[in-house]
Amino acid sequence: MGSLRDTMSTTTAPTLSRPSPPGLGPIAWARTNLFGSWVSTAVSLALLYIVARAVLGFAEWALVGAVWTVPYSATGIAQTAVCQTAHGACWAVIHDKYRLILFGRYPFAEQWRPAIVVLIFIALYTVSAIRWFWRKELALIWVAALTAVGVLMWGGVFGLKPVPNDEWGGLPITLILATFGIAFAFPLAVLVALGRRSTELPAVKTLCVVYVELIRGVPLISVLFMASVMFPLFMPAGVNIDKLLRAQIAIILFAAAYLAEVVRGGLQALPKGQTEAADAMGLSYWQKTSFIILPQALRLVIPPLVNTFIGFFKDTSLVLIIGLFDLLTMGKVALSDPPWQSFSTEVYVVLGLIYIAFCYAMSRYSRGLEQELNASQRR
Fold it and tell me: What is the distance between the alpha carbons of residues 360 and 353, in angstroms, rounded to a whole number?
């Protein structure tokens, strides 16, 4: 009877209801994360005040008190007196110098060509980011796009006026150096990373170690300078490589050394059981590397890979040392015009927005790709 009474009391006892989870709306989120205690509330209010003051101050400078256009004299010289007395930004410098900043010294009448080149690069990045295009045909798309870039920039065919690369500049130079640099440096980095982990080819391993440590031990400016000054000395007599190609080779070699270490980190983080399972299946070295090892290793190092890509996209501004005028350098050239020398802030703000747009797109895409691959891995 006692056990029966205990059983009945257990089954008839009311169950305690769990508290409902907190709301997921913005007000509930703010109450939990920003105003959960008096210390959190004080810090949140102080930060909100600072951010609000900064935003309002920037809006006052960039929009409310800004000058958008200025008159010009009969000789075409900008009359910037109205900007000198204004309380805000003088965006007229961008209106006057945007073609020089974006396209450099490219012939004025032919600047539609580098404009199309910029659109081709953006379209190429967009297509490459869509997983549906990750097939063999994507390589043909890259070849066709880069061929179109060369035809448009150099000209000399299809009735296009020839333009030597000494007259190139601005955003196309930045995109060309960054795109070709990363596109060629990444496969080289994979080979160097595999070679550095090789146990059966000690000579290849030693060569890869020396290459990585040597390149990583010097700044990019030194590599660019060596490519500009020393590289032609190793060429046969009469062979002259233009400075754009020399800068491109230097960036490829420099980027490959850093990317190789990132890839090697992914290879080391992969469990040894993956390699043993591939060996048990009877796969060859290149089969297990291409289909099992590398895909998993690269998935692990997506954040540092994209971080390195972003770094090298910005480091293209260092090509000024060998006489190439990229986007940042053309902004400095635009400010050498005496009427506009006092308005560098406006130019650098616009240049910063351009760099932020490209870098943020890469960062945003990498986060989405990482989440997608991790979700598929969990399934």
Answer: 10
